[in-house]
Amino acid sequence: MIKAKKILLLLVAISMMVGCQEEKKQESEAVAETPPVEFPYDISYSSSFAIGNPAYAQMIVQGSWKDWEDNNLDNMKNWVSDSILVMHSDNETVRGLDAMMARWKAGRASLKAVKVTVDAVTPIYSKDKKEDWVLVWATEISTHEDGITDTTGIMETWRINKAGKADWLLQFDRKNRKK
After folding, report:
1. The pTM is what?
2. Rg of the chain on CA atoms, in Å
């Protein structure tokens, strides 16, 4: 009787393993069989993306967000390219690490406190352009020196160069409406 139970248990375990492998195979086949999508417009940059390097997402969240919140902006030298191009949400374009640091330090110095909530972060890789990007959705609550508090929803798109440093930032924001 014990031998029969062991054989039955072994058969159940094997069937579960085979079933799980079959399920994984079906899932991967479903992804591979997804037909190409036709867009109503020509896509000017790329429509061929894959999930990118999560280390780049960590670098951007630490550098752009946590260091901003903690006022540790000198750390930018570690992860930002000297030739960065920054297109801020106020339509000002800044070129170069020194100019970016000067602007960000002046902006942060005008704030008594900052609280950040990162809502989503996604590293992506453009397969046809062979470029890494990091997309961030966040909310920033800023307290100015005069005590006025602003809440802003921010979306950032960072390009990462071949050296693993951020070399382009596109920033968009929306201040929350007061009722």
Report:
1. 0.78
2. 24
